[in-house]
Amino acid sequence: MAKSKEFIDPAEIGKPIEASIQEGMKDPKYRKHYMLYQVRTAIAAAIRSLRESRDMTQKELADKVGVPQPQIARLESVDDERIPTLEQLVRVFAALDSRAFLEIIPPLQTHAEKREIVLV
């Protein structure tokens, strides 16, 4: 079965990507998908960068964490739409001798303070 081609609005050609993202962020579905992609990308990049800086293979990291190598490959992939659990992240970052923080930033209009939680 052939894939259907998506229509591209000629007005969008040459438009800066930032403008397209800003426009898309008005749609709740787009915003949710975009934010999840940003989280997945940041996690994947951090794990891969830390692993490579320690001259570790995915297999070596997997053995240290106690999981199969394909699980590390999935964590480093931006194509996998699953978000790892905090427990998984704690185990991986601990195996990489790294500390991880969860930062909670309240809405600007509240007087609540920003919080950081140490995961590892």
Quickly list its features.
120 residues, mainly alpha, 434 Repressor (Amino-terminal Domain), two-stranded antiparallel sheet, flat
Q: Residue ranges: pLDDT <50 for 5 or more in a row?
A: none
N to C succession of SSEs: HHHHHEE
Q: Under the CATH scheme, which class? A: Mainly Alpha
Strand content: 5-15%
Spatial strand arrangement across the major sheet: 1-2
The helix/strand class is mainly alpha
Rg computed from alpha carbons, rounded to a whole number of angstroms: 19 Å
CATH fold-level assignment = 434 Repressor (Amino-terminal Domain)
Tally the structural domains.
Answer: 1
The major sheet is characterized as: 2 strands, antiparallel
| Count of distinct strands | 2
Instruction: Please estimate the helix content.
Output: 40-55%
Q: Based on the structure given, which CATH architecture is correct?
A: Orthogonal Bundle
The mean pLDDT is 85
Distance between the termini: 48 Å
- Number of DSSP helical runs: 5
Question: How would you sum up this structure, described in words?
Answer:
There is one protein chain. This protein is mainly alpha-helical. It has one domain: lambda repressor-like DNA-binding domains (434 Repressor (Amino-terminal Domain), Orthogonal Bundle), CATH 1.10.260. The protein has five helices and two strands. The chain has helices at 17-24, 28-53, 58-65, 69-75, 86-95, and strands at 101-104, 115-118. The chain has a two-stranded antiparallel sheet with strand order 1-2. Helix 3 crosses helix 4 and helix 3 packs across helix 5 (86-95). The longest helix has 26 residues, at 28-53. The protein is flat, with a radius of gyration of 19 Å. The mean pLDDT is 85.
